[in-house]
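Explain this record to help learners:
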Amino acid sequence: MSREHDKARISGAIFPLSSVQITKLFSHDRDVFAKFTKLNLERGAKIIFYISRQKMLAGESKVKKIEKLTPDVAWSRYKNRLIFNREEYDKYVRISPITKQERKMKEITVFELTNVRKYKRPIRSILPVTSSGRYLTNKILDMLKNRSLDVCTTSAHSEKERS
């Protein structure tokens, strides 16, 4: 299968977050997610949030805007909307939580989110997810939907979406 054909089937990604970051995303009106990743998504792509260590899918959103920025520019532009506070962000952009080594990537991918939704019940993931994420295809999305009828969601940002 050609690389172009594969790219055409990409509909989003699964990204891991800690349970603390998941809570901030869904209950603190945060709508910007920043990640060191080489995955390339487009506007309108679906992001599913994976709770690290628990292997559960917690919710989803759509990508409104994507930018690759230096960490300093990303913080100055989005600091009040990120799922990190300043201390967490500074630590994340300096040191990899996986390798405990200094970051090699110099640009962070910033995803401005819309339609942020928390699943009523987390869904057990049967897919391996690396620290930088995993592409989603329509086939994988269909498989996830068929695995659980609980993919029904509730809006995490209902107040914001109404305004």
